[in-house]
Write a structure and sequence with these properties.
The chain is of the alpha/beta class. The chain has a single domain, classed as Spore Coat Polysaccharide Biosynthesis Protein SpsA, Chain A (Alpha-Beta Complex), CATH 3.90.550. Helices cover 23% and strands 24% of the residues. It has three helices and six strands. It has a four-stranded parallel β-sheet, sandwiched between helices. Strands 5-6 form a two-stranded antiparallel sheet. α1 links the parallel β1 and β2. It starts with a strand and ends in a 6-residue tail after the last strand.
Length: 120
C-alpha cells in the first residue's frame, strides 16, 4: 500500500518544517509513505522549504487559486503517483502539545493560532 500525505500550502515556509516533521513514516500496513506539497502560488520560500525538509513531490500553482483548487490538485497528483491512500493533515498539533506545553494548533493552509478552549 502506498500512502501519500498531500499538503496544500500558501505562504507556509515558517510552519511547514514542523508539519513535515510530524508526519509518521512507518505505519503498519503501509509499504511506502510519501509527502506531496501543493504550493498554491506562495510568495515566500514555501517551495524551497519543502525541498529542504524532504517533500517527495512538489506541485506549484502559478498564482493563488484557493484551498479547494489546491486540494483537488493534490488529489489528482497523488492518484497520478499511484497512491492507494491519500490524506491531508488539517490541524497537526491537535494530536499533541507544543514543546512549550501550550495548546496550539495550526493548519498548513492557514496561520498558526491558539485554541483557548483546547482540552487538557
Amino acid at each position: 500500500m502506498k500512502l501519500i500525505v498531500q499538503i496544500p500550502c500558501y505562504n507556509e515556509a515558517v510552519t511547514l518544517p514542523a508539519v513535515l516533521a510530524d508526519i509518521p513514516r512507518n505505519i503498519p500496513g503501509v509499504d511506502v509513505t510519501e509527502v506531496l506539497v501543493v504550493d498554491d502560488g506562495s510568495t515566500d520560500d514555501t517551495v524551497a522549504v519543502a525541498q529542504t525538509c524532504g517533500a517527495h513531490h512538489i506541485v506549484s500553482h502559478p498564482f493563488r487559486r484557493g484551498l479547494a483548487a489546491a486540494f483537488q490538485t493534490g488529489l489528482d497528483a497523488a492518484l497520478g503517483l499511484g497512491a492507494d491512500i491519500i490524506v491531508k493533515p488539517i490541524f497537526h498539533a491537535l494530536l499533541g502539545r507544543s514543546s512549550s506545553n501550550q495548546p496550539t494548533s495550526s493548519s498548513v493552509t492557514g496561520r498558526p493560532r491558539q485554541w483557548p478552549n483546547f482540552p487538557p
